[in-house]
């Protein structure tokens, strides 16, 4: 796939953190309550946004493995963690950081998840996480991934899986054409086979329930408006780029739509979902 720009991941982080469902995070915290330490593998970690959103809900001592196929993002993740932490020091394979009364030992792992659905090898972590990843994968990948971590009875927490629903406001005559072309682009192969896109959370939930897991789901939409101009503009540019690649919408329509979407007064609701899956007792 074409890769994720660090600027885009930085720009979306505060909207992502604000959108996460607090009820699922509290349930995750309750699951690990009383534990002193936890090991976590974060898939498609990017700049480590998921670690920063989740760390305060987990036990005081945390050993994270951040997995990504983009070495530049992993290297930048250490810089972002260092800037976020109260104190830090580099290690041979990552970084150690303190944030509040939490101590985090972070290891970077370069791996292609399309080829390796279970990059923890033979030492199963206490928790597997992923954020803004599952809409990129295929139904076949989900089946293999769920089989791998349910076999090891590992809990799984995922946030911000795009559910395919986006509502721009105010309405624009180009919306319908842009939306249908974007949706088709969303289903293209992102390196894992044909992407499940908006169906990802439901597919995961069905497979996890069938494996006996207790599954909780909750919406986590972005509600962007006044104050989110930079993210709205980047979102509109991203849509335009994707729609252009489909060749389904005339360039002049795309240009006019993007220009209108960057004017003050726009708002956008982007549908996402979070999911927490706990193994059978
Ligand atoms: C939308 S970004 C989300 C990043 C981060 N989890 C966050 O919430 O900001 C998707 C991430 O998945 C990674 N990714 C995509 N395909 C991958 C693959 N085949 N193997 C490993 N990582 C992959 C990308 O490099 C990117 O960091």
The beta-strand count equals: 10
The low-pLDDT segments are: none
SSE string, helices as H and strands as E: HHEHEHEEEEHEHHEEHHE
Supply the helix-strand structural class: alpha/beta
Which distinct ligands sit in these coordinates?
A: S-adenosylmethionine
Alpha-carbon distance between the two ends: 39 Å
Query: Could you estimate the helical fraction of the residues in percent?
Result: 25-40%
Largest sheet: 10 strands, mixed
**Total count of helical runs of at least 4 residues:** 9
- Overall mean pLDDT stands at 96
Note the beta-strand portion.
Answer: 25-35%
Shape: globular
Instruction: Give me the Rg, rounded.
Output: 19 Å
Question: Overview of this structure, please?
Answer:
This protein has 281 residues and is of the alpha/beta class. It is built from nine helices and ten strands. Strands 1, 2, 3, 4, 5, 6, 7, 8, 9 and 10 form a ten-stranded mixed β-sheet that branches. Strand 4 (94-99) and strand 5 form a beta hairpin. Helix 5 runs parallel beside helix 7, helix 6 packs across helix 8 and helix 8 (229-246) runs antiparallel to helix 9 (251-261). The model has no long low-confidence stretch (mean pLDDT 96). It binds S-adenosylmethionine.
Brief descriptors of the model:
281 residues, alpha/beta, ten-stranded mixed sheet, 39% helix, binds S-adenosylmethionine
List the helices and strands and how they pair.
Layout: H1 6-19, H2 22-32, E1 37-43, H3 49-54, E2 61-68, H4 71-84, E3 87-91, E4 94-99, E5 102-110, E6 127-131, H5 139-151, E7 156-169, H6 175-186, H7 200-210, E8 214-219, E9 222-224, H8 229-246, H9 251-261, E10 267-278
Parallel strand pairs: 1-2, 1-6, 2-5, 6-7
Antiparallel strand pairs: 3-4, 4-5, 7-10, 8-10, 9-10
Helix pairs in contact: 5-7, 6-8, 8-9
Bound molecules: S-adenosylmethionine.
């Amino acid at each position: 796939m074409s890769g994720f720009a660090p600027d885009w991941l930085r720009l979306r982080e505060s909207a992502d953190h604000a959108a996460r469902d607090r009820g699922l995070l509290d349930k995750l915290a309750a699951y690990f309550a009383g534990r002193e330490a936890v090991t976590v593998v974060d898939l498609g970690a990017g700049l480590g946004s998921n670690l920063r959103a989740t760390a305060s809900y987990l036990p005081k001592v945390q050993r994270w493995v951040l997995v990504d196929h983009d070495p530049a993002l992993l290297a930048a993740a250490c810089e972002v963690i260092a800037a976020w932490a109260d104190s830090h020091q580099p290690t041979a394979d990552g970084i150690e950081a303190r944030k509040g009364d939490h101590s985090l030992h972070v290891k970077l792992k370069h791996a292609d998840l399309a080829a390796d659905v279970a990059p923890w090898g033979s030492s199963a972590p206490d928790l597997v996480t992923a954020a803004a990843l599952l809409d990129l994968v295929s139904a076949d990948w989900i089946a293999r991934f769920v089989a791998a971590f349910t076999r090891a009875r590992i809990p799984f927490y995922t946030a911000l899986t795009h559910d395919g629903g986006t509502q721009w406001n105010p309405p624009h005559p180009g919306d319908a054409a842009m939306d249908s072309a974007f949706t088709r682009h969303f289903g293209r192969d992102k390196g894992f086979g044909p992407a499940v896109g908006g169906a990802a959370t439901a597919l995961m939930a069905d497979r996890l329930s069938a494996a006996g897991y207790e599954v909780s789901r909750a919406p986590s939409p972005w509600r962007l408006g006044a104050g989110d101009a930079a993210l709205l503009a980047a979102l509109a540019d991203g849509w335009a780029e994707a729609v252009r690649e489909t060749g389904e919408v005339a360039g002049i329509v795309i240009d006019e739509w993007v220009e209108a979407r960057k004017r003050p007064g726009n708002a956008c609701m982007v549908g996402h979902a979070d999911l927490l899956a706990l193994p059978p007792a």
